[in-house]
From TrEMBL, chain A:
UniProt entry tagged with the keyword Transmembrane: yes
Organism: Actinomadura livida
Membrane-crossing segments per the record: 31-49, 61-86
Protein name: DUF485 domain-containing protein
UniProt xrefs under InterPro entries: DUF485
Domain of life, source organism: Bacteria
The keyword Iron is annotated on this UniProt entry: no
Sorted UniProt keywords: Membrane, Transmembrane, Transmembrane helix
TrEMBL record, chain B:
Compartments it resides in: Cell membrane
Annotated Gene3D superfamilies: Sodium/glucose cotransporter
Pfam families on file: SSF
A GO CC annotation given for this chain: plasma membrane
Protein name, per record: Cation acetate symporter
Transmembrane stretches, start-end: 6-26, 47-70, 76-97, 118-149, 155-176, 188-208, 247-269, 281-306, 341-370, 391-410, 416-439, 451-470, 490-508
One GO MF term: symporter activity
Keywords attached to this entry: Cell membrane, Membrane, Symport, Transmembrane, Transmembrane helix, Transport
Biological process annotations from GO: plasma membrane acetate transport
Assigned protein family: Belongs to the sodium:solute symporter (SSF) (TC 2.A.21) family.
Length: 120, 536
């Protein structure tokens, strides 16, 4: 990845503008943001139904196991599932790209362009 | 040997082991990174265990099992918010925080802002949240000793609070983050083992048939099928709309609060890389989720085998349900001696639980005092590392002493609401500031300060005028009534207020630092320039 070393700004500003970094940012946000909205909605739906749809929640499915219990246990399943899905996504789609960009930044800083270090 | 003696012996073994760990940790704590972040040398699984040890408080172990034992389904409902909340930490906070901060929550907030006002706000909020949480745990410890050992005198309760306080001060002052983390790891292993054992015995008793366990629980509770449905504790039909809105308010505070709790956030700094931070949250989620599944069995098991009447006779809030169940199931399975031993084990585990959590809270608040307020606000960033760590140790001592005194004073007060309040404050003030800092380009000093003070202020203001502080039987002050805010938990209003304050504060100020935004964005996502682990 070549970046224009004569461009203005710090090393971070130059890397922020690269297509590679923008791709990493998009991959992260496209996963994390909608997923957050989804699990929060799913959780709030559960809480709201627990408050306002008690007849439905009390429906017995098999034995003493009712909808409320299954719905609650499903929250565990989705939490474990989303955590696993995220870590797989991160390992495959985010980490390699992040490593590559970090390597490039560190290489450039090592060349003496370490404005960020000096500024701190 | 009586169960009390055995329990005290087991507890002393735990104390001796943790003190040995503390001595070891103090020898290996040489600089600020060691003290604040354990040298960033813990592995993902180790930190995951410590996350569990830090998070699963006596309120979750004894409190949730008790809630389920007395109110059935609603206790389970309560535990779910505590678990789902970890997804916010995993997806949005843990890794980015690890990549862009050093020691405290404020490191991330102050990254591209004017440091003094932002660190002051973050320090105030960190210390407020931690002290609330700490106080609830300390008072809980006093109540627990009375319940488990029959020491009901004011003196015995006070002495227990003082003992817990002194131990937590020793862990933090000498062991720093290394000592505290190992205490939490040991506690997590003990708690999971103890809970798993009792769960397994209960399931065996019911032939691994969940339905028959639930049936028995519902029958013994005297409430029938309603015991297995929502609505006995939160948003009961008598409370009408207010009660149901309170349920939503509590749910929001729990699910959004975790990722804003300072003592949880600093745990992400103890690992070498963001990837380890991710791994540790994965482990944390696995442990915490499994633990709440155990408490589901423990709670319903206590209702079925001990009976709600017997549980509420011993403690109105049901806090002894888990120990009572341990004794009962031990007797059923192995005779009287089995009951005695199992009760003693669970009682000792409960104390270990409290100690690990209070140590984490003391560390979080003293770190923030030393690193944010002392080093960056009072000394304007000119304090040496040695100075900073010395101040952190002194402030751990002071915070510990203050919480012992407050804990003893608050013994007779009803402070159970403080845990939910700590979550509400964290969700209202800290979370908006953290999320805006990480993801909103335009965010600035005015926005950060407004979000924290706005959210914190709104939560505190509303709770002061709520029924948990005055005007109800279970209020902090039962004699007078100045309440007008109907909800017990302020989250429903204060969380949106915090986000709104952060937004308005930001757009009203022209400050914008493109250079620093580029740095935090690139650093947080790639890990470039992130703090490295210490090599000894």
């Amino acid at each position: 990845m070549s970046i224009d070393k004569n461009a203005s700004g710090t090393v971070y500003q130059r890397f922020q503008g690269t297509a590679e970094f923008q791709e990493l940012r998009t991959r992260f946000r496209r996963f994390a943001f909608p997923m957050t909205v989804a699990f929060l909605t799913w959780y709030l739906l559960y809480v709201v139904l627990s408050g306002w749809a008690r007849g439905f929640m009390g429906t017995e499915l098999f034995g003493a196991i009712n909808v409320a219990l299954v719905f609650g246990l499903l929250q565990f399943v989705t939490t474990f599932g989303i955590a696993y899905y995220y870590s797989r996504h991160a390992g495959r789609r985010l980490d390699p790209l992040a490593d590559k960009i970090r390597g490039d930044i560190e290489a450039e800083e090592a060349q003496g362009a370490g404005t960020a270090e000096d500024a701190r | 040997m009586s169960n009390e003696t055995l329990s005290i012996l087991l507890f002393l073994v735990f104390v001796a082991a943790t003190l040995a760990i503390t001595v070891w940790a103090s020898r290996n704590t040489k600089n600020a990174t060691d003290f604040y972040a354990g040298g960033r040398s813990f592995s993902g699984p180790q930190n995951g265990l410590a996350i569990g040890g830090d998070y699963m408080s006596a309120a979750s172990f004894l409190g949730i099992a008790g809630l389920i034992a007395l109110y059935g389904y609603d206790g389970f409902l309560y535990s779910i918010g505590f678990l789902v909340a970890w997804l916010v930490a995993l997806l949005l906070v843990a890794e980015l925080l690890r990549n862009s901060g050093r020691f405290t929550m404020a490191d991330v907030l102050a990254f591209r802002m004017s440091p003094r006002p932002v660190r002051t706000a973050a320090g105030v909020s960190t210390i407020t949240v931690s002290i609330f949480y700490l106080l609830a745990q300390m008072v809980g410890a006093g109540a627990l000793v009375a319940l488990l050992f029959g020491f009901t005198s004011e003196f015995a309760k006070g002495a227990t609070i003082a003992l817990v306080g002194v131990l937590m001060i020793v862990y933090v002052v000498f062991g720093g983050m290394k000592g505290t983390t190992w205490v939490q790891i040991v506690k997590a292993v003990l708690l999971m083992t103890g809970a798993a054992l009792v769960t397994l015995l209960v399931l065996t008793e019911f032939g691994f048939n969940l339905s028959s366990l639930l049936n028995d629980a519902a029958e013994q509770s005297g409430k029938g099928e309603a015991f297995l449905e929502p609505g006995l504790r939160y948003g009961t039909e008598e409370q009408g709309l207010t009660g149901k809105l309170d349920l939503i308010s509590l749910g929001l505070a729990l699910v959004l609060g975790t990722a804003g709790l300072p003592h949880i956030l600093i745990r992400f700094y103890t690992v070498p890389t963001a990837r380890d931070a991710r791994k540790s949250v994965m482990w944390g989620i696995g442990l915490i989720g499994t633990f709440y599944l155990f408490t589901l069995v423990l709670g319903f098991g206590a209702a079925a085998l001990v009976g709600s009447e017997e549980i509420s006779r011993v403690n109105e809030a049901g806090n002894t349900a888990a120990p009572q169940l341990a004794e009962k199931i031990g007797e059923i399975m192995f005779g009287d001696a089995g009951g005695t031993i199992l009760l003693a084990v669970i009682a000792a585990v409960a104390f270990a639980t409290i100690l690990a959590v209070v140590a984490g809270l003391t560390l979080a608040s003293s770190s923030s005092f030393a690193h944010d307020l002392y080093a960056h606000v009072f000394r304007k960033g000119k304090a040496t590392e040695r100075d900073e760590v010395r101040v952190a140790r002194i402030s751990a001592l002071v915070i510990g002493a203050v919480s012992i005194v407050l804990g003893i004073y608050a013994q007779r007060l009803n402070v159970a609401f403080l845990v939910a309040l700590a979550f509400a404050v964290a969700a209202s003030g800290n979370l908006p500031a953290i999320l805006y800092s990480l993801f909103w380009k335009r965010f600035n000093t005015a926005g950060a300060v407004s979000a924290i003070y706005g959210g914190l202020g709104a939560a505190l203001f509303l709770v002061i005028f709520s029924p948990v502080v005055s005007g109800s039987e279970k209020a902090l002050f039962t004699d007078s009534d100045w309440s007008w805010f109907p909800l017990q938990n302020p989250g429903l209003i204060s969380i949106p207020v915090g986000f709104l304050c952060g937004f308005v504060g930001t757009v009203l100020s022209k400050e914008y630092n493109a250079e620093k935004y580029a740095e935090i964005e690139v650093r947080s996502l790639t890990g470039a320039g992130a703090e490295k682990a210490v090599k000894h």
